[in-house]
Amino acid sequence: MCQLLGMNCNTPTDITFSFEGFRRRGGITDHHADGFGIGFFEGKGIRLFHDDKPSTNSPVADLVRDYPIKSENVIAHIRKASQGQTSLANTHPFMREMWGEYWLFAHNGHLIDFAPEQGNFYRAVGCTDSERSFCYILNHLRQQFSEKPDEATLFAAISELTHEIRTYGLFNFMMSNGDCLFAHASTLLHYIVRKAPFGQARLLDNDVMVDFAEVTTPNDKVAVIATLPLTRDETWHQLAVNELVMFRQGDIVRSDKPHTAIYMSVEEGLALARAVGVSC
Amino acid sequence: MCQLLGMNCNTPTDITFSFEGFRRRGGITDHHADGFGIGFFEGKGIRLFHDDKPSTNSPVADLVRDYPIKSENVIAHIRKASQGQTSLANTHPFMREMWGEYWLFAHNGHLIDFAPEQGNFYRAVGCTDSERSFCYILNHLRQQFSEKPDEATLFAAISELTHEIRTYGLFNFMMSNGDCLFAHASTLLHYIVRKAPFGQARLLDNDVMVDFAEVTTPNDKVAVIATLPLTRDETWHQLAVNELVMFRQGDIVRSDKPHTAIYMSVEEGLALARAVGVSC
């Protein structure tokens, strides 16, 4: 199964600590060795790093580790291509411009027979169901709204499109325009909001510890979202199955959590991913 | 003045030698210290590296130097922001998707009062005349052709749009979809096509020499396009003022060279850039 990592904060923050654990899942502590990608918003601009090498031994991942880029919104993805080619064109996150903003999108899951008609505005370049679903969302948003709508309308529209797409299969995704970050769970997606009083945490995938009190100010609020928790010594929360949330400034500000919230165990989620042959 | 660098080849080639000289113009041998960007096509995918640090001391540029990425089409840009902010959103090359392909664009020049109406498909994210001109070209192409037209039609359409935009000022640019590379000169744009028998060359900006015979095969054909020649020991050619060319497989395959071709001297080109306050 591919893995997702996202960050949404109220102040530009570097993601090197979380990324260090996350990248080890690309070949060392797990088997997602078909490339990786990470996109950092800086203001309205984006730094986008893609590599078709496993993230554990990618020079591009080394750069990301050694060059602490501060960002308020980050989306990263490690790819396990159980179907489809390993190629740069299929490497997440994908980027498009809509309403004069860049949008990033990364997906973990598997959509069966998802082949929507070609939209008017956006087309997939590669051959993944993931990029097709991103283009589908953007085409429909752009068709409905020639200008960016207010936040409530935008959230409702993305929630509706997500509901539609997830009938095709597993659809864990993250999407951001550099202002807010949308995260949706079909199976497994965990998050933590770090804020004062900051404590210490140790990576699950690597013997690295950080004392957040030393690298933050009291007003910082940093949400980290990942397929699986990245640290011990901290309590991670989980998105319900079929829940879409919107993060802004390090907090969940909107959710469409189902009335009967179901939380999938890690074992169930991984078993389901194996059963349907998750590709991304 | 900003500087442009492009490469178009018939076989995936690394640009590290040319880039090594080029990047030194970002702060050491010239004054273009407001960030840089480089995009490499790999198949239909793109690796895009942007930095708002000067290219001479950018960790991202170090990565590009140390990680020889082989590509058939590359576009790079060093920015001298004589107007406008230095920000990631204003850093070339810009990228958009059209007809299911990624397109890269970088510009060196200055367009005065170029504020076209908002198009239906593409909008600028940053605040440069460069990105506006790129979106203008794409909007008009997409409006004219819902699918990619044949090569002759595409070249004629880009030639016409270029003719229109250059009435607003200086418009040296490069644009590629990973298959062909368009280059247009308002003032200075030089190129060289390296092919067998390959010789040696020494960078103008750095005491580095390469023997191309050692790093090529006899069938390789590599076009390098740059604002100013990068090497001694080789004969660089120049695009005529107002000439648009299309490179494919390392050769110029189309040109709209004016009947009366005018070639600007380097001194004239630099003086003109200074006079109009070239920004990009």
From TrEMBL, chains A, B:
Keywords: Glutamine amidotransferase, Transferase. The keyword Hydrolase does not apply. Residues 2-280 form the Glutamine amidotransferase type-2 domain. CDD domains: YafJ. Transmembrane segments: none annotated. One of its GO terms (molecular function) is transferase activity. The keyword ATP-binding does not apply. This is Class II glutamine amidotransferase. It comes from Neisseria weixii.
